Amino acid sequence: MLLRFKVENYRSIRDEAVLDFEAAGFADQKECLLLYKTKRYLPVISIHGKNGGGKSNVIRAMWLAATFIKNAQRTQTEDAEIPVRPFALNNYSQNTPTTFCFEYVDDGIWYEYGFSATRREIIKEHLYWAPKGQKSVVFERKYQIFSFPTNGEKKHKEMLSKAVAANQLFLSIASTMNYMPVNKAMHWFRTKIFFSRDYADLGNNLLEYGHDPRMIQSIIQIAKTADLGIIDMQFEMDHFVFRSLEDLPDSLSHEERSQIELALHRFKENLSAEFDEASAEFQFGKLRATSFHMGLDGEGKAGEYPLGLMDESDGTIRLMARAAAMESALSNGGVFVVDEIENRLHPKLVEYIIQRFQNKNRTNAQLVFTSHSVEILHSELLRRDQYYLVDKDVKSGATELYSISDFSVRNDEKIGKAYLQGKYGAVPFIMEE
């Protein structure tokens, strides 16, 4: 369960922005709240605001930080830049670090992990945890100086720190060396945070979860929910391993063969000179998806008729593309993060996704999304503290993130109407000629 996310000096976010899941003391919809120790937390946070205000940058910050944490040991070669983008609309932020921090609970244990970095090096990094209920330090770092608590594993951790380059994260490197506290902290990033994929990547998404029949069944059920005409779906997935292009099956089309050749060429370009091509194995996955709809024959008799997946509506495909990550979060108690949740989806489908997390949520799963839709504000699906807004200062160009609960909001207040009237800010100012 994610308790807080903090980001500072990233894109339009100049000052520290905090996405805080701790619930306010409101009496409404208390049954939806998630319990950790004595405090209650929100299952859903909705982020609204005007175009260009910085909504997507909050999501980008979460994605960049989580992806870098999981992959820094592979991507950060000696000369690789750290992929941060500091605030650019002044003369000093470019020279100060970008900071990310996650506070979360995994398997009943509280963690806080964060790091600050410029494009060249990690400035600070820390990991705290509370395996016995009391906060303790796993490690702290300032530049290449590492600090560890005094215990029997101090020498082991100091040895690990010597393997960490200035542009690498200790968490990422130590997790590959089977250091237990770091492995436990990394587990949440690897298995509990999911980002919505673009609908064009549906094939890879389905292939990734193709081994799990429960997941495939969930995707089929969501497809039926999205499109009342779908009565069933069928997936055929082929996986094969090959060592060279000569091993590719003859059944591949010219386009598929060309795509594999290009992918292999780019892969080899990024490998070191020590790579032993003779021992390499490559995997390829191929997906065929068919949906079945009811139709009528020439005599008016009902029957099932197949359609290729790409013949389905854009909204159906988009919802299916999100289905695997959404179901993984709901099954495993993870966090599902979506930018522009309503994109090409009917308001009823958006409501369906939100309610999956808001109501009868037995795994402490969470949903974070951005939206332009005032329908969500009007719908009263969420509590007042579940609505966040972003606004951009006209003079400085800096994004501010804040909760509607920061205002004196009555229990019966019409959030959507008050938002459009400008009570909370974060609405566009339209100049008429």
What does this structure look like?
The longest helix has 21 residues, at 55-75. Helix 5 (202-208) runs parallel beside helix 8 (314-332). The protein is α+β, with helices and mostly antiparallel strands and 433 residues long. It has 11 helices and 18 strands. The strands form 4 sheets. Strands 2-1-6-7-8-9-10 form a 7-stranded antiparallel beta sheet. It has a 6-stranded mixed beta sheet with strand order 11-15-16-5-17-18, sandwiched between helices. A hairpin with a 2-residue loop joins strand 9 and strand 10.
What's this entry about, in short?
With 433 residues, the protein is α+β, with helices and mostly antiparallel strands. Helices cover 29% and strands 27% of the residues.
Question: Keywords for this structure?
Answer:
433 residues, seven-stranded antiparallel β-sheet, 18 strands, single chain
Query: What is the averaged pLDDT score?
Result: 84
Could you tell me the number of beta strands? 18
Q: Hey, roughly how much beta strand do the residues contain?
A: 25-35%
Strand order of the largest sheet: 2-1-6-7-8-9-10
**Alpha-beta classification:** alpha+beta
- Straight-line N-to-C gap: 49 Å
Helix proportion range = 25-40%
Q: Please describe the biggest sheet, giving its number of strands, its sense, and whether it closes into a barrel.
A: 7 strands, antiparallel
Q: Specify Rg, calculated over alpha carbons.
A: 24 Å
Overall geometry: globular
Count helical runs. Answer: 11
Low-confidence stretches: 270-280
- Element-by-element helix/strand order: EEEEEHEEEEEHHHEHHEHEEHEHEHEEH
